[in-house]
Sequence to fold (128 residues):
Amino acid sequence: MEVINTIGRRKTAVARIYMTPGNGNIVVNKRDYKEYFPTGPLQFIVNQAFQVAGAEGKWDVKANLDGGGITGQAEALRMAIARALCENNIEDRPALKAKGMLMRDPRMVERKKPGRPKARKRFQFSKR
Fold:
């Protein structure tokens, strides 16, 4: 029985997964993914890589998620699953790449600057 180990990242979230042949169980931090990601759009994001590759219900995933928020974690998990599917079957790569699931999204939160309330916001200007 082969175990595929990959990593996915988004913003400050990191997803480390162990994927084995199975019947579609996804466990995230020792909980079912539907309990961990309660909303429909987040569950769709998690399953998106399987749908594009046509591999729904063929793999069991055990994931460790750390850092970031819930959306960043879901997208990091999607990236890790897409990488694992490519590692298993190289023919899935063009379809996953076309949907942008193999690219690390570089957008990060801009840092707060000194003397300002937020990254770009300024205090109200008073001429007099």
Remarks:
- The longest strand covers residues 13-21.
